[in-house]
Design brief:
Layout lengths: L10 H12 L10 E4 L13 H7 L5 E4 L2 E3 L6 E3 L4 E3 L15 E3 L5 E3 L5 E3 L2 E3 L8 E5 L7 E3 L2 E3 L3 E4 L8 E4 L2 E3 L10 E5 L7 E8 L2 E3 L8 E4 L6 E8 L2 E3 L5 E4 L1 E7 L2 E3 L7 E7 L2 E6 L2 E3 L5 E5 L8 E3 L2 E3 L6 E3 L8 E2 L11 E2 L9 E5 L2 E2 L20 E6 L19 E4 L7 E10 L3 E8 L4 E16 L2 E16 L2 E12 L9 E6 L3 E6 L4 E6 L1
Parallel strand pairs: 1-2, 2-5, 3-6, 4-7, 5-8, 6-9, 7-10, 8-11, 9-12, 10-13, 11-14, 12-15, 13-16, 14-17, 15-18, 16-19, 17-20, 18-21, 19-22, 20-23, 21-24, 22-25, 23-26, 24-27, 25-28, 26-29, 27-30, 28-31, 31-34, 32-35, 33-34
Antiparallel strand pairs: 36-38, 36-45, 37-38, 38-39, 39-40, 40-41, 41-42, 42-43, 43-44
Length: 532
């Protein structure tokens, strides 16, 4: 048997290996914890002020601040190193807690001028001087700040927002309240513009905070960047509570952002909107938010120009003094997609032209709100409300198209261009009535190798269209889709317009999961819509 060879290891090599295992390198000090107490009574306290500890600290260190009051100054509390700050309530959700606090009362506020700073478990209050004017100001050009579990109150504005975007900024589980002291941006829980946050702010998560009673002319979250070469991008604003603020959101020049699962109630800026878009806002998605009880307000209002791709789905709009949604003329590129929202009535929004039987929150302007939720989200079904009446289409001018017991069209069909070729034709016939829902549909596009036969009819909606009152109908359900390659059951939607006799201006469109054609003006035949 071979005897193992003994390997000599020097002391220096052993220390190097040990330091690598422990995550430290020779000559590099391990991160330290510095303890601060205003009366020097806390065990281990070596500093009476937070600023003194910052001066002594190295990047990566932790500064533990015991319960007490820290006026700091002169000037703002200046955080100019990447440090972790832990107050007496670190790790404890600020929205619900009680107990002793580490209270920063610098009237100039706290200035964060370094990357990857963590502020956890403080009360920050009394930022009442115009510089900085914020409880906490994140300086332009710095990234990755985390503001966690803090009470931020009684400042001109709560947080001045900046983030370059290379690391996400996180604002989570804070209580941001009563930030309405006199000064610029007063009434804003979180504020940014091109001066406060720099030309571009990007990649910020704002979740699980409570914004309470931030009054004045701002908003709980106020994005007022109007730099045409910049803007605010990639916000994720989720699961926050907004209560008794002047407004929830003011948005200028905001892009590619998500607002999801927020609860907004009791706002009070008369004549304004809880969600207030002033222009140059694009790619915004509002989902699963509950907006209610705005005094003399709109739930949502869009104005200005160059707003585009702003969508609202599965939100609740309830009990607003003005409207559920108002879109000023020219304020959005095409209709605002506001399908599948609850307007506080199963009949949908009040709109004397587009939905004369609607009794819910009013919708004003170019808004696509059909279909709407038939009950509050979550849980409300998004489907077309049933409209009593009958809709027919086929080759006949008078009377209904006829079908065999197997659902095959027996009478002459109507004709539209084929989806496969404008020189080819597709044919159809249908009759659908409500209520009780029943009907037949057969559609054939030989050129596209598609035949569609109705299986179930699940909804019929009759409303106003381009040709007048009660001239547009939509019906939905399931159908068997036949192709030479196989047969499948698919959902379908048919939309038609009845523009008067003899039907030469009538239109027809059909969509299934795998096929789409139209809307097209009929080449032959007739559509008739009769609302009961």
């Amino acid at each position: 048997m071979r005897t193992p060879r003994r390997v000599a290891v020097s002391a220096s090599a052993f220390l190097l290996a040990t330091s690598l295992i422990l995550g430290t390198a020779p000559g590099v000090a391990a991160a330290a914890t510095l303890v601060v107490d205003d009366n020097m009574a806390c065990p281990g306290a070596a500093y009476a002020t937070i600023q003194a500890a910052i001066t002594a600290a190295s990047p990566g260190d932790t500064i533990q601040v015991c319960a007490g009051t820290y006026p700091e100054g002169p000037g703002p509390l200046n955080i100019n190193k990447s440090l972790v700050f832990r107050g007496a309530q670190a790790g404890v959700d600020a929205r619900t807690r009680s107990g002793a606090e580490s209270v920063i009362t610098d009237p100039f506020g706290t200035s964060v001028a370094a990357d990857n700073v963590v502020l956890d478990g403080f009360t920050v209050q009394g930022g009442t001087l115009t510089y900085t004017g914020y409880g906490i100001w994140l300086n332009p050009g710095d990234d990755g700040t985390q503001i966690l579990n803090n009470i931020i109150q009684d400042n001109i504005a709560g947080i001045g927002l900046a983030n370059g975007g290379s690391a996400q900024a996180v604002i989570r589980q804070n209580l941001i309240q009563n930030n309405d002291q006199p000064g610029a941006a007063s009434g804003s829980g979180i504020y940014t513009d091109q001066y406060v946050g720099g030309s571009i702010v990007r990649n910020v998560l704002i979740e699980e905070n409570a914004f309470i009673s931030n009054g004045g002319f701002g908003a709980a979250i106020n994005i007022s960047n109007v730099d045409p070469s910049g803007g605010v991008f990639d916000l994720d604003v989720s699961q926050n509570l907004f209560d008794a603020n002047d407004r929830a959101f003011v948005l200028f020049n905001t892009h590619d952002s998500i607002f999801d699962g927020n609860r907004i109630t009791n706002s009070k800026f008369v004549g304004s909107g809880d969600v207030r878009l002033f222009g140059d806002d694009t790619g915004l998605v509002f989902t699963n938010n509950a907006l209610s009880d705005g005094v003399g307000m709109h739930a949502v209002r869009l104005s200005g120009t160059s707003n585009a791709n702003v969508v609202f789905h599965y939100n609740n709009f309830e009990r607003y003094g003005m409207t559920g949604m108002t879109v000023d003329t020219g304020a959005h590129d095409g209709p605002v997609n506001a399908e599948c929202n609850w307007w506080n009535s199963p009949t949908g929004p009040t709109d004397p032209i587009g939905n004369p039987s609607g009794t819910g929150e009013e919708a004003v302007g170019d808004i696509d709100y059909t279909p709407w939720l038939l009950a509050r989200a979550p849980g409300g079904l998004c489907q077309l409300p049933l409209t009593p009446g009958k809709v027919t289409g086929g080759g006949q001018i008078n009377g209904d198209p006829t079908f065999s017991p197997a659902g095959n069209l027996l009478s002459a069909p109507a004709i539209v261009p084929s989806a496969a070729s404008p020189t080819a034709q597709a044919t159809f016939g249908f009759v659908v009535s409500c209520c009780k829902l029943k009907g037949n549909l057969e559609y054939t596009d030989h050129q596209a190798d598609v035949r569609i036969k109705l299986k179930t009819i699940d909804g019929l909606f009759i409303g106003n269209g381009t040709c007048g009152t009660n001239t547009h109908a939509t019906f939905v359900g399931t159908a068997t889709v036949y192709r030479s390659t196989g047969t499948a059951t698919e959902s379908f939607t048919v939309e038609v317009d009845d523009c008067g006799e003899p039907g030469t201006a009538d239109t027809f469109s059909i969509d299934t999961d795998t096929y789409s054609n139209g809307p097209s003006t009929l080449l032959g035949g007739n559509i008739q819509i009769h609302r009961s």
